[in-house]
Recover the amino acids of this structure.
């Protein structure tokens, strides 16, 4: 279905990534945000707080990120599309409720405008060092989806995709921005509402009594209801059966955990979203995401100018990682070069995927600024030798 | 199995307990120990729901973790068993996203006031329109009897093996200071008064706090040689003093001390949503459409 025009600021704008992300959420139908101020993400919620009264919905600044990350889940179970917004230290506090969203299968979007860490780190400067945290940060086994925009335009466009994926798969979806993308101002085109496709929650058609909250079909994604509809649901963070009732035994655990992992893993191919440039026939492929992809683009151009066959693969959906695609490419590629604003996180996934069939060369950076293109170029040259 | 009968009470094969329709009967028996008072409070709550006249499809209950945290799972309402200490912020989101819901938080003293203390303080300050029932048994029951922020000075707990030397909260005083519009304390001896308080609380707009003292015979009473559940209820009976409108400063609890019970606070303040609608309506004028509707209207 199309976006509700009330939330869509159609037009051509000069806008930073944080504001564009907020507009993307509004266009996607997000009508409830709970947040807590934290640099460099605060502009997202500031804009939401100023926009939502005339769109129709609620913003509440909670007492901390723990509260924000569960207030949105209460709102989701009352029927709203929801989001919270934070940066590294806040994300660390939210881990508890990422697990709750995973086990209760609550659709919600977590925006992480990444900054340098660990701990308070570099509040005003960029990093991409939370990539593994969003995949593995909460205890137990579960799957998530994460997207990585590289421009204000993508902050808008991909945010709509983030909400659509949260509704489709009923998982926490992470929107992995960084300080540079958040604060960079560029042209952002917001199309008319009728050109924006939004996914509605999969509401059950079953009557109360027949509906079981965690019964699924082959999609493995259960249908949802909301509080107040007369279904008298029970939703718990304990291991539960199809009725949603606590079930403290290994069989129920096995059924539940396997399904919440499989509902993403079995759709992994549909969840591949990459942008490839000159990958076919390339000897070396640079794998990048987010702001680093823009720096890497300069390095790739220079390497090509010097006559090297270099491809560029940009991850748009980072989790689930497109392992199959990388594995296929590894058959014809000598080496993958993976620049990222961390000490080597997604390069581990590249290594895992290619499983020795090609080299995986990390270009680490501790954060605080972006790479120099020369640092990436140097590794491309090394890889091509 | 034969029916258990007493005047006005019958339980067994031929169940006609008026509270049964409020329970998820397929989840009974419950996990609570013999002599525990949580079930008594649930009974009071079910009766308060009956008397409230609320449409039960529009009532949601949210619990945290612990023995009292299991209440949500036994009530035949939309019910949410969340994370430890976080029932209040979950309830906040639920209420704000659908203001027509009557949202009740039902949890224990450790959950609400140790790990969840910050959320309690802020929801009361905001006058979030939720009713919070705290079953206070002075201990962490589910994890085996550790010291709680409500444990009086003196008694032994597994993590205070030589007796508690930490000062406890005076919960009604805390709720009052933070801005709750309704504050009451009763014990599980006072079933009529507790039921009435819950009924009043359900009809009240804004942040309602009800403290229900309840025995934990397994981990608090027995360990401190206070007998069983019945002995604790006898203590409540003998040492309780009803003092409505008492200054909440004066209602702190000591070990087996006098218990001041009653309705301490009943006042009016705009709820968070009322304040938002009033303020934004004034500032934004016609650009603003009031959000949601007031409680109970459908």
């Amino acid at each position: 279905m199309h976006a509700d025009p009330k939330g869509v600021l159609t037009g051509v704008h000069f806008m930073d990534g944080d504001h564009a992300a907020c507009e993307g959420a509004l266009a996607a139908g997000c009508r409830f945000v709970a947040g807590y101020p934290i640099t460099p993400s605060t502009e997202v919620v500031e804009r939401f707080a100023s926009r939502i009264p005339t769109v129709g919905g609620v913003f509440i600044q909670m007492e901390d990120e723990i509260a924000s990350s569960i207030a949105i889940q209460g709102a989701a179970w009352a029927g709203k599309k929801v989001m919270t917004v934070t940066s590294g230290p806040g994300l660390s506090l939210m881990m508890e409720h990422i697990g709750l969203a995973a086990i209760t299968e609550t659709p919600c979007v977590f925006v992480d405008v990444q900054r340098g860490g660990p701990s308070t780190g570099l509040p005003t400067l960029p990093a991409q060092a939370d990539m593994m945290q969003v995949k593995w940060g909460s205890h137990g086994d579960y799957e998530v989806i994460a997207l990585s925009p590289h421009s204000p335009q993508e902050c808008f466009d991909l945010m709509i995709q983030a909400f659509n994926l949260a509704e489709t798969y009923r998982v926490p979806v992470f929107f992995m921005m960084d300080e540079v993308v958040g604060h960079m101002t560029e042209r952002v085109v917001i199309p008319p509402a009728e050109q924006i496709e939004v996914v509605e929650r999969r509401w059950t058609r079953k009557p109360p009594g027949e509906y079981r909250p965690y019964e699924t079909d082959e999609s493995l994604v259960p249908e949802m209801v909301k509080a107040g509809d007369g279904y008298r649901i029970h939703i718990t963070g304990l291991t539960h059966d199809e009725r949603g009732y606590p079930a403290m035994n290994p069989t129920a655990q096995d059924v539940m955990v396997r399904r919440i992992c499989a509902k993403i893993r079995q759709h992994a191919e549909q969840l591949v979203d990459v942008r490839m440039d000159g990958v076919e026939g390339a000897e070396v492929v640079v794998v990048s995401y987010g702001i680093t992809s823009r720096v890497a683009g300069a390095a790739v151009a220079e390497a090509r100018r010097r006559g090297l066959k270099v491809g560029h693969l940009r991850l748009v959906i980072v989790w689930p990682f497109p392992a199959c695609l990388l594995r296929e490419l590894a058959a014809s590629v000598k080496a993958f070069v993976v620049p990222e604003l961390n000490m080597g996180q997604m390069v581990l996934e590249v290594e895992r995927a290619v499983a020795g069939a090609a080299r995986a060369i990390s270009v680490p950076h501790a954060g605080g600024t972006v790479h120099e293109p020369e640092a990436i170029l140097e590794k491309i040259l090394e890889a091509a030798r | 199995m034969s029916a258990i009968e007493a005047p006005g009470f019958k339980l067994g094969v031929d169940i006609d307990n008026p509270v049964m329709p409020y329970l998820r009967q397929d989840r009974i028996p419950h996990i609570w120990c013999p002599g525990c008072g949580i079930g008594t409070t649930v009974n009071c709550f079910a009766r308060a729901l009956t008397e409230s006249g609320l449409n039960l499809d529009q009532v949601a209950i949210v619990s945290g973790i612990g023995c009292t945290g299991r209440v949500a799972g036994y009530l035949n309402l939309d019910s949410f068993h969340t994370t430890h200490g976080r029932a209040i912020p979950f309830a906040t989101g639920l209420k704000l996203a659908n203001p027509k819901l009557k949202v009740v938080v039902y949890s224990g003293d450790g959950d609400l006031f140790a790990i969840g203390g910050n959320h309690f303080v802020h929801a009361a300050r905001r006058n979030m329109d939720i009713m919070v029932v705290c079953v206070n048994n002075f201990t962490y029951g589910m994890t085996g009897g550790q010291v709680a922020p409500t444990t009086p000075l003196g008694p032994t707990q597994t993590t205070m093996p030589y007796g508690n030397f930490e000062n406890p909260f005076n919960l009604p005083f805390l709720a009052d200071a933070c801005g709750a519009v309704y504050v009451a304390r009763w014990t599980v001896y006072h079933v009529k008064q507790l039921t009435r308080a819950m009924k009043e609380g359900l009809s009240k707009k804004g942040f309602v706090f009800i403290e229900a003292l309840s025995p934990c015979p397994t981990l608090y009473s027995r360990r401190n040689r206070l007998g069983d559940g019945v002995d604790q209820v006898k203590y409540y009976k003998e040492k309780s003093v009803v003092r409505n409108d008492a200054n909440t400063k004066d209602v702190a609890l000591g070990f087996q001390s006098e218990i001041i019970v009653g309705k301490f606070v009943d006042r009016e303040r705009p709820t968070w949503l009322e304040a938002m609608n009033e303020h934004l309506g004034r500032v934004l004028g016609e650009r603003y459409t009031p959000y949601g509707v007031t409680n109970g209207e459908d």
In short: Residues 152-169 of chain A form the longest helix (18 residues). Chain A has twelve helices and 16 strands. Chain A touches chain B through 44 residues (CB under 8 Å).
